[in-house]
Records
---
Amino acid sequence: MPFDLSLWGLPALLAAFAGAALLISIAGVTVVTRADEIADRTGLGEAIVGALILGGATSLAGLVASVTAAWQGHPSLAISNAIGGIAVQTAFLAIADITYRRANLEHAAASTTNLSLSALLVTLLSLLLVTSFGPDLTIWGVHPASVVLVLAYVTGLRMVERSRSEPMWFPRKTSLTVPDEPSRDHGGRKRSSAWVYGTFGLAVAALGAAGYLVTQFGIAVADRSGLDDTAVGGLLVATVTSLPELVTTITAVRRKALTLAVGGIIGGNAFDTLFLAASDVVYRDGSLFHAFNQQDLFVVAVTILMTGVLLLGLLRRERVGVATIGFESVLILVLYVAAVLVML
């Protein structure tokens, strides 16, 4: 049930936002640390664990936020949070590139899995765009595209896993490439599997709870400030619920789990498209995909463009660009800032 925030002033709501952001940040550090250990224990590899486990876990706050917003009759907030989150998380990858000073992050984290994930993300985003212009129909209140989106995601992940287990080509290794190799030392301590998975689960639960709180605060901020749901969802809620991706990506880079860092962002972005499928199920006023406004469509288009630039960077593998970051990171940040200015 939604909280009664009618007596809260705007400063109090913003302070509550900051508290939720802090909770998300703390839980995010725990999630990435445990995910790296899970990658080593299971042998699945950093890219797959980054896409499936880390990407899904860090996206939980955003998923809860979008579903809650749609359920409470705020479709624009649900949509803008999902798509805006993908855009800001792609920008976070460029920020992580800045923190890795040895070389361009996309060069060092070369992986056919991450290339496949990027192609999957472009496909899923394009599907959202096409659906918004298609027939407005629902079956038991759910648009068929919601089912197609989930099936496309699952099928795409199977193809991504096959590209890892049975690769048809390999990225060339250079002196700057950091391979995805299991580590036997995680803080110098031996931890039981129960402890690793247990703390991971608690951190994920904290992210989900924080996502619900952020939604309630976001709706109240929109009412108090006079901003529309798209602006609040795309800029404020999306940024706060995406903080786990920023924290986990930078943490992974510092742990030299570079493939995990890149895979976590791209895989998480692909998972985030499912926010709209889940939100469509609980949205009771027709098809959520046809509640897109012009700003929502603009953000989807910009996000596809940003992902395309990232994919080009993963293929080009520039060793060292401007200030030791690749051309793709510079362009991604420019595109994101430009999109924010257009939305304001």
---
Amino acid sequence: MVVVLFCFRLVPLALGRRLGSALGLLALRVRPRERRRARENLTLAFGELAPRQREELLKATAGTLGRNFFDNLSCARLAGNDEGFQDYPGDTERYGDFGSQLANLAGRGRGVILLTGHIGSWELLGARVARLLERRGCGPLAVVTGTIHNPPVDAMLNRRRCRLGLRPLARRDGIRPLFEHLRRGGVAALLLDQKLSQQDPPSRFFGEPAPTPDGMARMARKLQVPILPVAMAWDGASGRHTIQRLPVLNAPSPRADDRGNEVRQVARLQQEAQDSLEEFVRRNPEQWVWFHERWATKG
């Protein structure tokens, strides 16, 4: 892995992205299980498309995933280059530029949750946000991470995240570190578009039940932390990464006499979060990782 990262630092960006895309297409051919799952998911989400259209989308997804994988591994040289990023058309007019909106939310001192998913170059999104927060004295950005079952590789990737200005919080350590980071007014990024446990409460995603952890919604309600849905997608026309935003989600304020509504309020906020992620995927269908077992019906 160290050799791979070293080589990626030397490869020109254009060449590396082409190689990444080619590797993604090769993986699609040699991984029948993932190919079958992606076809099932695309049929569930976009059943109105003709089979040929879904196959074209699947192929585009594989190539895009490979290219974004290269950019994820190239975070160190990409995150600080302002010319490589742009706001989604219309977002600046509605919300102001991304860095200012982020700083304004963080400046309120209540913490901020950045809601995102496995869309585009999500690791690069984290590195870019961390850089913007550092410039404004609002860092570090906490990120909840899974654990790779190869301890040396897992440790190396987390050291790399720390050098990029991120504060990794291992999912296996539970919710307390994230809760404390937010309670102190920190900014945290959560990826909430995977099925972690079949026992998680369901939300609707593309109209179908999808088990979704409700810890984010519960923390946002308890701490009154705003949730900013954000995603990053590659724009081939401009050759830049586009940062996309949707309206901030605000949790209802808990009251001592309102405990009976907590479950409904949490479920409502959780559904609003999934609706935001679905909107990002619909905008960028070829940039989401369709190979996940996302839905309850996927066994």
---
Amino acid sequence: MSKISEAVTALQNGRFVLIHDDDNREDEIDMVVSAENILPQHVSVMRKDAGGLICTAVSKEISIKLGLPYMYDILKIFGQSNKSISLITKNTSPYGDKPSFSITLNHVNTYTGITDYDRSLTISSLAKICRNLNMEVEDNTIALEKFQNSFITPGHVPILIASKGLLNERMGHTEMSIFLTRIANITNVSTICEMLDPVNYKALSYKDACKYAQDRNIVMLDSKDLMTYANDINNK
């Protein structure tokens, strides 16, 4: 519980948290930060120290409010008239999950969209719009129009959609990071990036990720930490 508390405080204060999923899944560590607090410096650290794909995850509820689809649903429709796409979308990941990818975005005020500044602008602007969504009502016209007028697609920030049941449905970094934002009582938008090893060109090992976290005083969580916390909540 103390590790969860430390992770919550870190997210609330714009600091990184590392999350390891599971040895039998991707067996990868993602660097996670609250999208509300993201700055160009965060994107730079993720790009240099993590090295994976910098994505922004939203809750399923937010995706519905904004009209964001899963990419596999888009491709399924397109595949009805394109045999190559139809066949490719039938393939699955080695660990069995459907990908959580949605569309990619750039903010309208970016230039190329790929710089640390541009990506942080896109991410923080999306988080601000999500923060202003009223999840209790159907009519979010102002926020929805702000979203539609503020971004272009395709862009350089991949959007991920968490499953509705979060950890009860899927134990991906998307779900774990959004679950953590809920515990932290902040907007359910997170930015995540896989940590890679520049020496062996594979995912960074758990041991090396722990050393990275220790050297920089970053909280390191395992999927079992979050699942234990979730089970404790459900049993109360």
